[in-house]
Each structure stands twice: as C-alpha cells, then as structure tokens.
C-alpha cells in the first residue's frame, strides 16, 4: 500500500526544524528514541509507531510507495530535516517488482 498524506491523518504533527527530531507533536509527546534506532511516534490512523523520518516526508506532501523506505543522507537518524531525507528501494524489492511485472 502506498502511504500518502491523503490516507494518513497527520493533524497531530507539524514540521519544525527547531523541534527535537524536526517534528512538533501537537498532542501528547509520543515520540520514542533509542540509541542507534530511528525515532518513532504513534500515528493513530496507522495504529502503530511510525518512523519520524517518514512522518516528515509525508508532511511535505510526498508519497511512500510500498517497498520504499525513507533514509537519512548523513546517516544521523535524529536529523530529520527534509533536505536530509531520500527515498530508498532495496534490491530485493526491485527484483520482486520486476518479477510481478510492476517495473
């Protein structure tokens, strides 16, 4: 399933480069950060903790197709500035999509 700003409710979040992880939580701060791990926040419309870098990507009106992950250019998982993020597709996903005729 492609995740887009249209099918995920992001009303609890705003992009703010002065905030921790570049996202301000409008509701209770539900962000979680563990050493060496991607920061995550509870997204009620998805019913799960979701990576904050993906939330930032969606807040900028971008889509996340199935099989695509959003990665950090500088490798710093706390640096979620939009200019530090890029979409990444794994080789195994490319092979699977080619096999099914999608690519």
Report on this structure.
- It is a single chain.
- With 103 residues, this protein is of the alpha+beta class.
- The two termini are 16 Å apart.
- The protein has a two-stranded antiparallel ribbon with strand order 1-2.
Short description:
By secondary structure, this protein is α+β, with helices and mostly antiparallel strands. It has 2 helices and 6 strands, in the order E-E-E-E-H-E-E-H.
Key features of this structure:
103 residues, alpha+beta, Homing Intron 3 (I-Ppo) Encoded Endonuclease, Chain A, two-stranded antiparallel ribbon, 2 helices, 17% helix
Name the beta content range: 15-25%
Q: How many E-type strands?
A: 6
Count every helix, treating DSSP H or I runs of 4 or more residues as helices.
2
Q: Output the CATH class name.
A: Alpha Beta
Span between termini: 16 Å
Structural class designation: alpha+beta
User: Roughly what percent helix?
Assistant: 10-25%
Q: In oligomeric terms, what are we looking at?
A: single chain
State the shape. Answer: globular
CATH architecture annotation name: Alpha-Beta Complex
Low-confidence stretches: none
Output the CATH topology. Homing Intron 3 (I-Ppo) Encoded Endonuclease, Chain A
Largest sheet: 2 strands, antiparallel
What is the averaged pLDDT score? 83
């Amino acid at each position: 399933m492609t995740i887009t700003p249209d099918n995920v409710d992001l009303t609890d979040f705003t992009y703010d480069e002065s905030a921790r992880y570049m996202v301000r939580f409008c509701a209770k701060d539900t962000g979680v950060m563990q050493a060496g791990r991607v920061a995550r926040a509870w997204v009620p419309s998805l019913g799960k903790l979701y990576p904050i870098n993906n939330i930032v990507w969606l807040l900028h009106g971008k889509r996340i197709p199935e099989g695509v992950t959003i990665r950090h250019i500088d490798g710093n998982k706390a640096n979620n500035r939009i200019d530090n993020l890029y979409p990444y597709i794994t080789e195994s996903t490319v092979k699977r999509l080619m096999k099914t005729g999608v690519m």
